[in-house]
Amino acid sequence: MTGRIVVGIDGSEQSRYALEWAVARARLGGEELELLHAYSFTPPIDFFGYHGAAAGQQVAWFMEFSEEVLSAAQQRVRELAPELTCTTTSKLGHPAVMLAEASAAADVVVVGRRGLGGAASVLMGSVSNRLPVESKGPVVVVGDDEPPTGGPIVVGVDDSPFGTNALRYALAEAAVRKTRVRAVAAYDLTDQAIQGDPELVARARADVEADAEGTITRALGELHGMGAASVGVDRVAVEGRAADAILAHADDAQLVVVGTHGKGLVRRALLGSVSRQVLNDADRPVAIVDLPDS
Q1: Domain 153-289 class?
Q2: By three-state DSSP, how is residue 117 classified?
Q3: What are the structural domain ranges in the chain?
Q4: CB 108 within 8 A of CB 139
């Protein structure tokens, strides 16, 4: 643990919510805040008589904009929590790349769901989609409204290392927030050979449900001695798709936690389908957790 939370700032309403979420979290854990704004510019061009703005002019404008936005954000931190240590960083480069670099020296990176100019759509902003894959630590994506301040931590658990590490993060967050964890494991009953026999279906459903509950129990066993015993855990086994199960049990959550990938998947260039759907559809902050040192 580094004792540092990095917050992506771009001047949008979503980054305001991300900032205020991070301030509230830092007040609970005593972490320092680093507010980071990344900017880029278009090189000068000569395209069929059209001459773009000179690079020097663009850089000067963006540098000034970056400094002003960060100054306003830092002032907001002082208003909310004057006791917190808060630094600012302005960098030239793609926000996702700069935030991923900063994640190496942070406990968590916090960003808004969409940035400036991002229209509400079925797809997330480029930073919140790209960053969880490239980050060297957990990423929290804060939604389009003021985040909730109470409720359990809901986490999706499967029998993969990603699910276990997501549970580890959820337990640690619940301990800091003094709340409970709701661990959700999904199961599917799709064997067509038994669909015509109600008794077989009932027995099969009971078996796979017990196995799903066992997945949570095994994951907790792996984390024994790491603070898991100090947090209350509600175990929920749900028939259906994993993302749907997690979202259906997160209506009262203050934070939803998922792994970057799920059962049987290795790290790749894109988020897994479950984490991607939860990010897209959740109406509350979502933490995306990869494997340690990956």
Answers
A1: alpha beta
A2: coil
A3: 4-142, 153-289
A4: yes
| Amino acid at residue number 215 | T
CB atoms within 10 A of CB 207: 12
pTM of the model: 0.85
Task: Locate 166 and state its tokens.
Answer: 């997501």
Q: At 183, give phi and psi (nearest 5°).
A: -90, 120
Same fold across 4-142 and 153-289: yes
SS3 160: coil
Question: What kind of architecture, by CATH, is found in domain 4-142?
Answer: 3-Layer(aba) Sandwich (3.40)
For 89-122, the pLDDT digits (tens) are 999 888 889 999 999 999 999 999 875 444 333 3
How far apart (Å, rounded) are the C-alpha atoms in residues 29 and 262? 29
Sites in the chain below the pLDDT cut of 50: 116-124, 192-193, 264-268, 294
How distant, in Å, are the alpha carbons of 23, 33, 103, 179, 232 from that of 89?
Answer: 17, 11, 13, 33, 38
The C-alpha angle 210, 214, 217, rounded to 5 degrees, equals 145
Amino acid residing at 211? D
Distance CA 139, CA 133 (A): 9
In the three-class reduction of DSSP (H, G, I as helix; E, B as strand; rest coil), residue 53 is classed as: coil
- What span, in angstroms and rounded, lies between the C-alpha atoms of 172 and 181? 10
Distance separating alpha carbons of residues 194 and 196, to the nearest angstrom: 6
Closest Cα partner for 137 from 186, 172, 91, 176? 172
